[in-house]
Amino acid sequence: MRFRDKVVVVTGAAQGIGEAYAKGLAAEGAAVVVADIHADKGQQVAKEIEALGGVARFVRCDVSDRDSAAALVEETTEAYGGIDGLVNNAAIYGDMAFDLLITVDWDYYEKFMSVNLDGALVMTRAVYPAMQKRGGGAIVNQSSTAAYLYSGFYGLAKVGINGLTQQLAHELGGMNIRVNAIAPGPTDTEATRIQAGEAAQDMTRQMAIKRLGTTEDMVGTLKFLLSEESSWISGQIIAVDGGGTFRL
Ligand SMILES: NC(=O)c1ccc[n+]([C@@H]2O[C@H](COP(=O)([O-])OP(=O)(O)OC[C@H]3O[C@@H](n4cnc5c(N)ncnc54)[C@H](O)[C@@H]3O)[C@@H](O)[C@H]2O)c1
To answer: Which residue range or ranges hold the Ketoreductase domain (predicted)?
Structure first.
């Protein structure tokens, strides 16, 4: 029960990897805020956690909207007294448009970046004062190994997430707030099935461990990065990818 008395906000927790993060943290004692734009699925995740004896609540939150982020912080601190952890996992992914950087519609591109890149900054700016009041905290951003491959605006946003992680680690380190990122490789979620279909299996041929990741594969690293076990680790991007990428 590493996270007893800890309060953690997980964005994009209505399904997929975020759902596994929320459930994994709740199973180790955290009070979890399931933050998402999808109310029905998000409420269901919170209910499932509570049915297993955990503490959770769904809060509707659009990570690209500053007012929505501020409202989430208010509701969370009122309900649980503070915030110790933030997982910036939300992204437009499963229903993402296929297009190129040189042709993508500007309005779509700006909306995409406002969620997939700026959303992590919006949430961090809203949450960090509550962490500071608790004497510190930990933030984990969700990157992707797509940051190291050609993957258009999706990969570009994840490169931004990596940079944001490194820069914010410096701005928040003096407040005892650590900022790290997880870069998953291709992971078997409904969104990946929609995005990549059969092609996802093909990608596993290039990996050291020749299978897709599972949502559960991600949870151990998340718990490590949020816990005291990683108390001197900040500004790092950890690939959880079956040995799929080399970074020199
Ligand atoms: N699945 C993979 O193979 C894979 C690999 C690398 C990185 N990732 C990253 O992991 C994260 C989760 O991926 P997934 O496969 O579970 O995707 P998913 O599409 O199942 O989950 C994303 C969640 O984010 C929510 N969301 C979207 N826009 C939002 C907004 N504006 N505000 C709040 N919530 C919003 C969605 O409703 C959804 O619940 C994403 O950041 C994705 O880029 C996924």
So the answer is: 6-185
